[in-house]
Amino acid sequence: MSTQHVLEGTLAEILRVINPSRTDFETRMRIIDELRDVVCSLENLKGATVEPFGSFLYQLFSRWGDLDISIELSNGSHILVPAKKHKQKLLGDVLRALRKTGSFRRLQFVSHARVPILKLESKFQNISCDISINNLSGHMKSKFLLWISLIDQRFRDMVLLVKEWAKANAINNPRDGTFNSYSLALLVIFHFQTCDPAILPPLKDLYPGNMADELIGVRADMERRIKDIADSNIARFRKERRPNFSSLSELFITFLGKFLDISTRTEEQGICTYSGQWENVFMNTRWLPKTHPIIIEDPFEQPENTARAVSRSQLTRIAEAFRNTYNLLSDPYQGRITLIPSLVAPEIINFFPGVPFLNLRADVRPYPWSNQNASHGNYSSSQFQHHFHKTLQVNQPKIFKGQNGKQPSLGQGPRERPGSQHQSVDRQKTGQQWPGEAQTVGPPNTRTLQHQRVDRQKTGQQWPGQAQTVGPPNTRTLQHQSVDRQRTGQQWQAQAQTVGPPNTRSLQPTRNDNWASQGSLKASPAAQAPQVWRQKQFER
Q: Of 48, 53, 101, 363, which alpha carbon lies 20 to 30 A from 433's?
């Protein structure tokens, strides 16, 4: 099987896992309704509306994606632009109201950001939310990305895969000095613009001008005008473009290859999706002075840099992630089990049967198993309006169930392979035991005895029935047993009669174990000879 074929199947499997289900959509709508009830209860927010935007609006969110919410203040039909201090005050009122409900946790008010944001997490399915005030710009950018995704389905798939890959390599968190999700989406757009033939046009061909400067007047009229312009330009491009038949795996590999030198090339050039090409930073006056190590211009709010949070040290690490993954995918000897850990976040490794839980960071916790049996499918623009077409039921990994028949809780992965590497880590961290551990160390024939010995030494436990035998019969060499006994100071059971369990040790090792000093069994003459000679030498 060719490497390209293996990668294509692996990417398809990843998409089946991360694509949101109908239940995931309904979960977010329920959270929006809860937030709407809180906003309506506040006197100073009478008439305000709660509107989602971001990846949820343009349908580029995964099953575990966060939720962006904008509280739009009432101003009749006209667009209102409140001052930053007013936004901070209103978000403070929302924060106090949310605390009283008890339905949210980890509330954090980021008041001094460029756009004040209230961060929180819903107790229902642990969905993270970012709440802002009158974020009309973010709302319109989300709509543009939705319209772009309608040009080619591969754009949506690539954005989901790239975002998941960035999480796997820990380069999708602006608070740590890496990319935000919007910047990653713009990188995918830029890649599609610079393919041959191009899959997407320069965004100036879809909407000429700076959209952020036109968010004034009557909102309905403004939205209708922008949509009409974009629709006509998209229709013309789809009619005139040359077809590109590249597979998803080919597009993914060329995406990585295109940005191998991103840390050095961006010293003098910026990424401009508005023009669809690299542009010289020092020839572009709107980017001067250059104060950030990388520039990814916002095509709808020029000259804003969407990658302004990226630091120099992290940009070097981002380039390493591109190179490492590119080299891995170019290796013809790589298979599904080695590819998946480098392409998906460690929190969702447990959704891929047969893949070991590798490189688990201390702060990583597997995602809960909710919605595991939900049907999956891609959404069209019409499905966003609370309507879902019937889609095929995607086969999901079987859920391992314990003796009580219940589904594993948070912190436990699937038990498709009871002998997989991550089970030992989970059991040690949670202090849990295998069902029936009083009889056996673990499920039979699933763990090597070397791992069992390490587990027993760490926890101070003993083999079941250790008074009779050193361990499960015919599973350990007597050489290892001797080392274990010497380290722990334990003795063989019935040592006065036999050197060890019958039929498990050769007679040759008895001389080196020095059993005479541990029990009533006398050492053989051959073993006593060196001691007698040393004693005589000392007396002389």
A: 363
